[in-house]
């Protein structure tokens, strides 16, 4: 079996509009979950502590960090509790 470089494979798959749409959607969700996780870790907070500060259930924070999609207003509450500003860019 021939070896295929991941970037070459991904570039070829991105030519398919359905694949590209799904890939970009999942990428955005995972980037937002990673951003929440890293901001919480950098603040030195547990999920429970962030939940208390943001008035967002700890289970919701856990779901966000797992990569489950969530509402922008929920992430905004979390950002505010962390003293951060939520920015959204559409490119």
Structure commentary:
With 91 residues, the protein is mainly alpha-helical. Helix content is 67%, strand content 0%. The protein contains five helices and no strands. The protein has helices at 6-13, 17-42, 47-54, 58-66, 72-81. The longest helix is centred in the N-terminal third of the chain and has 26 residues, at 17-42. It is elongated, with a radius of gyration of 16 Å. The N and C termini lie far apart (37 Å). The model has no long low-confidence stretch (mean pLDDT 92).
Main sheet attributes: strand count, strand direction, barrel closure = none
Output mean pLDDT: 92
Q: How much of the polypeptide forms β-strand, as a percent range? A: under 5%
Helix content: 55-70%
Q: What is the chain-wise order of helices and strands?
A: HHHHH
- Helix/strand/pairing category: mainly alpha
| Number of DSSP helical runs | 5
Distance between the amino and carboxyl termini: 37 Å
């Amino acid at each position: 079996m021939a070896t295929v470089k991941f970037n070459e494979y991904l570039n070829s798959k991105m030519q398919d509009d359905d694949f590209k749409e799904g890939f970009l959607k999942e990428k955005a969700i995972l980037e937002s979950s990673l951003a929440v996780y890293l901001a919480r870790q950098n603040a030195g907070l547990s999920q429970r502590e962030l939940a208390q500060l943001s008035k967002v259930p700890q289970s919701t924070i856990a779901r966000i960090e797992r990569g489950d999609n969530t509402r922008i207003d929920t992430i905004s509450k979390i950002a505010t509790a962390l003293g951060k500003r939520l920015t959204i860019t559409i490119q």
